[in-house]
Amino acid sequence: MEIISIEQALETVEMFSKEHLDVRTITMGISLLDTMTNDVDKLCDNIKNKLMYYAKDLVKVGNDIEREYSIPIINKRISITPMSIITESACKTTADYVKVAKTIDSVAQKLKIDFIGGWSAIVNGGMTKNDERFLNAIPKVLSKTKVLCSSVVVGSTKSGLDMDAVKLCGKIIKETANLTKSNDSLGCAKFVVFANAPDDNPFMAGAFHGISQGEAVINVGVSGPGVVRKALLEAKGKDFTTLCETIKNIAFKITRVGQLVGTSAAKRLGVPFGIIDLSLAPTPAKGDSISDILELMGLEVTGAPGTTCALAILNDQVKKGGIMAAKNVGGLSGAFIPVSEDQGMINAATKKSLTLEKLEAMTCVCSVGLDMIAIPGDTSESTISGIIADEMMIGIINQKTTAVRLIPAYGKNVGDKVFFGGLLGYAPIMKVNNYSCKDFIDRGGHIPAPIHSFKN
Fold this sequence. Notes:
17% strand; Anaerobic Ribonucleotide-triphosphate Reductase Large Chain; globular; 11-stranded mixed sheet; alpha/beta; 13 strands
């Protein structure tokens, strides 16, 4: 057993108590492939029994580890097999989908799970009739559930981009915003559109348990922008070599915590330990901000020239440091840049130094993409689809995961704010380029995979 020095122990305690270090999530992935049936009521029973069997002790184990190791574990979550597959034989109407979704949501709440992800469809190669029914039911599903999260994979480097699905996602987002308008269109915060989505992502709203995964698994997502910020304060004014080494070293220490929690949780729950997702995930708490880190690197404000370069440095060094401390690295891994969940990003957006276009550029080098961005409620379906298409192509061409989580806040305009509470925080309404792309989106069909996808 490795002997930990008093200095290392004190350093770790300070990370938790003063610098907001936490394990963002323990996520149990559960396969629902064996629950499939052509009867809706039987499917609901099968899903309920499967989730209860595997996850009945998930929250208790998380709380026990939190108490024993004094490590804050913010969320306990579940991811499940993409439900468009599981519901194919049983669900023929929106009411059928809602019934299954409410069953899943009810079980998750009974288990005291924070979020459950996997109300998902993978349609990057095209949509079946079942997929279209499933997607069209998503707004109603999200308006009738509380902790269930949904995602749609519309593109990949290997298969290209399904523009029919992209168009439909614009409609889904607008309908969801309208159906949840009493809560600042909160339903849209539970829906994300992906290109190159990983099967083992522990973060919401995009988590699902891919069909390449086993029966059950534990995946862990760590956090720690505050810890990185503290380390960079000590490296202020130093050259880039020192800056990179500082970030890499602190990422190693953060990841060791995630490895400890993940292996311990997996052992106690009797399922394999999967991956650690190294993504730095901010919170609305002061000092726990990706934006603050970028500004400590020397930017006057996030969004200034040099921002994309600074984010690329952060993302790369986090991966380099973390990969040495983890048995298996997966998920998204790098740095999230959600506007609503990061006070520094909120401030930059309010100052208008951070625009939607600059965020899009930053997504070329970050973990995911345009995340938790509130836009005017009257933004058209085609404009939303155009934003999705742009972001998906960044991922497809660059062979990386990209995603879009937009909230067209019903009845709100630029200058207003939306309030979600908890980890989701609040967000200013950001300006959108409203020049029309309708004729482009209305073409429909499929954009072929890029030439560099052929690597067999």
